Amino acid sequence: MQRRNLLLTLVGSSCAALLLAPAAQGQPGPGWLANLSTVAHDVSGTVLVVDEDTLQVNHFTYDGGGISVYLYLGAADTTADFTAGLEIGPQLLGSEFDGTQPPLVIDLPAGQTIDGWNAISVWCDAVGVSFGSGAFHPPVGEIPGDFNTDGVVDAADYTVWRDNESGGYDAADYLVWRESYGTISTDRDSPRSTTAPEPGAVLMLAVAVVLPTVGRRPSRR
């Protein structure tokens, strides 16, 4: 009986530890992307991780308003994390972007890398408000018509085709975009590289460990 109770206690403790452990999340690396949401001041764009200490903001839009505005990195896409985050790049206040300018290349401060920074925001640091933000995610599978490579075929891709800055799009590409409109990559909502065990799996493991011992009598010598 004492042996059975000890095993039940050990398994219960193990289950609790597994259930309470946070899911492991992949760290941003080259090729990862963050899609900036539009919260205020017409912010939008896609942020690309070029290498461990360089970011590139593509198709960036921002009307130049606010008080004191910088790009900030955060451990997560939350107000608290950006408040405690890392200021990067130049002061953005007063600079207007309409998505047609060359990509904005940002070198991280000396000694800093993207490791541990899982989100980015156009951040008004004077009042602690985000004008638009997004979490980094791995590159998504290529979708026909997804000209801005954000994992969704939508109006933003039409804008890329219409502006044709690269000179590489034609009428055939428009037809591809039209046929694919609304398509979403199956990888887009899977930013985690590994996950914690599901509660059901942990429970089955506990049962498998405990059942063979319940009711078993000690062997006689």
From TrEMBL:
Residues 26-137 form the DM13 domain. This is Electron transfer DM13. The keyword Repressor does not apply. Pfam families: DM13. It comes from Posidoniimonas corsicana. Keywords: Repeat, Signal. Residues 1-26 form the signal peptide.
